[in-house]
Amino acid sequence: MSDNSGNRRVRVRFAPSPTGPLHIGGVRTALYNYLFARQHGGDFIFRIEDTDTNRFVPGAEEYILESFRWLGLKFDEGVSFGGSYGPYRQSERRDIYRKHVDMLLDAGKAYIAFDTPAELEAKRNEIPNFQYDATTRMQMRNSLTMPADEVRSLVDAGEQYVVRFMIEPGREVVVDDIIRGRVVVSSSILDDKVLFKSADMLPTYHLANIVDDHLMEVTHVIRGEEWLPSAPLHVLLYEAFGWQDTMPRFAHLPLLLKPEGNGKLSKRDGDRLGFPVFPLEWHDPKSGEISSGYREKDYLPEAVLNFLALLGWNPGNDQEIMSLDELVGLFNLEKCSKAGARFNYQKLVWFNHEYILRKTDREVAELFRPILEEKGITASIERIETAVSLVKSRVNFVHELWDNSYYLFQAPAEYDEKSLKKWWKEDAPHTTAELCDFLESQDDFSGAVLEPKVMDWIASKGYPVGKVMNAFRVTLVGAAMGPQIFAITDFLGREETLRRARHALSVLS
RNA sequence: GGCGCGCUCGUAUAUCGGUUAGUACUCAAGAUUUUCAUUCUUGCAAGAUGAGUUCGACUCUCAUGCGCGCUACCA
Fold it and tell me: Which of residues 123-152 of A touch strand B (CB under 7 A)?
């Protein structure tokens, strides 16, 4: 009874407006829809809601598509994917909307209104809290107050008008939300929403949304909380069309909030605190402004997805690292939280670190290779793999591998002053020179072989291990950093190790 | 202003009437280490407030406060 779609194939949609780059909150909404669809073996539809011609931004649609390709979220049907419920772009569905608007008009559930924006503006100034509804509609210029033939002649003459939904006051409208439970609103506080504009012969969101969801047999509407206030209107629309039996179930997701301070997450927060709020870098075609994206900032898509999944939902236990497939299995709309979630990007950085650790050295090496090439370094994938294995636990991002391993690929051009001050003093040059002579006598530089030999040698000399080794490290690395020293000599090999040590000796002595 | 939604450590959250209120991130301290990091251990830190229901409330109800959202011929 509460789930009137129980027998139908689950179908959900993500339906953005192509008004700019996809916001990270939109990504989360899409993710939840995706998880829900996959879990129920249903369909995930991509619809474009471009009914506002004024806000249309060229390139936005392709940007959104590319974002999902990067994230690995696949649609089953929709714009660019095909399907038998198309077209999936609302601007291509004019006839469908016109037909449905007429249905409401004929049934007396909607009416034509000629009030101009200027007239409405004047009305709002004149009457505080003016609302176009049952209490005011009879004072306005519409088909309710004007003779039918006058309405017809005005329309025929090309006079601009809108079609408004006639809300019957005094009703308790119930929205049965999966996350929030029963939300009841009085229809008296709703206004006669504009459903259709003659100016561009396009519907507004509300009408297009209901008609499309119905025609596309959408079973669950999973969307942001900002839509909750208009959900009663949508319920009323389903009723007006006589579609209440197949009305989708609603689930209104909590909003994504700023990391600090009040309000919902905005692009500004990202700029201010240094993290992107868009999946991909966005070049605004109008202003030329460039906004950073997660992909370009070197975040792994699986880390972004995992982090987003946990913003407003959790599996009910302490598990945090979950693959997309695991999420599909565990996800549950009923377990979504109701309160807005602050966007804690520090945790996202941690997720990125964890995902790098969980990838094989080979996989990370493949990601690191282009960065090395950019630095003018060519090395075999096996070499890179080894380097990665040595330092990957230190980084949060793939690009940080460079700062932590450049010395493996090129001899130090300079020596860190602090490290020098601490380790290159007194007899450091002397012991290092001696160590070089000893190494000269060694053929096998594999770490496992060389280490005990060097340690024995140091012991036989009676030198303090730390002093000798750290001075040696500085000659190889250029600073007091990096992994275990014999892992480094192993990587560098006999020749390169000795060359670096000798060079440092000549430069620093 | 109206309507709606929300409120557990700084953050994300667990708890579905009975717990020393758990976990993770962040931060701090200690241990480990021939460097830097990693790692490990420990620590800091929470039920907005006030009533009510109940043997018992973080959990249910109401009020207050605060926050957020919506209130367009935008979505």
Answer: 129, 131-132
What backbone torsions phi and psi does residue A183 show, to the nearest 5 degrees?
A: -115, 120
How many domains is chain A partitioned into structurally?
5
Does nucleic acid strand B have an atom less than 7 angstroms from the CB of A337? Answer: yes
Through-space separation of residue A319 CA and nucleotide B17 C1' in angstroms = 27
Note if A264 is an active site residue: no
Which residue minimizes Cα–C1' distance to B35? A480
A181 touches strand B (CB under 7 A): yes
Provide the whole-model pTM.
0.94
Domain around A433: 417-508
Same domain, A325 and A231: no
- The CB-side HSE value for A359 (13 A sphere, CA atoms) comes to 25
- C-alpha dist (Å) from residue A36 to A11, A209, A220, A326: 9, 20, 9, 12
Residues 84-113, chain A, CB closer than 7 Å to nucleic strand B: none
Q: Is pLDDT of A15 > 80? A: yes
Q: Name the active-site residue from A99, A197, A264, A267.
A: A267
Scanning the structure block, which residue is given the tokens 């807005």? A340
Chain A window 267-306: residues with CB closer than 7 Å to nucleic chain B are none
Sequence-distant (6+) residues with CB within 8 A of A245 are A4
CATH number (domain holding residue A338)? 1.10.1160.10
Give the confidence band of A6 by pLDDT, cuts at 50, 70, 90. low
Q: What is the pLDDT of residues A147-198, one digit of tens each?
A: 999 999 999 999 999 999 999 999 999 999 999 999 999 999 999 999 999 9
A5 within some domain: no
pLDDT at A259 (0 to 100): 87
pLDDT, tens digit, 9 for 90 and up, residues A434-467: 999 999 998 888 888 899 999 999 989 888 888 8
A177 CA: nearest nucleotide by C1': B5
Alpha helices in A298-343 (DSSP H): 301-309, 324-330
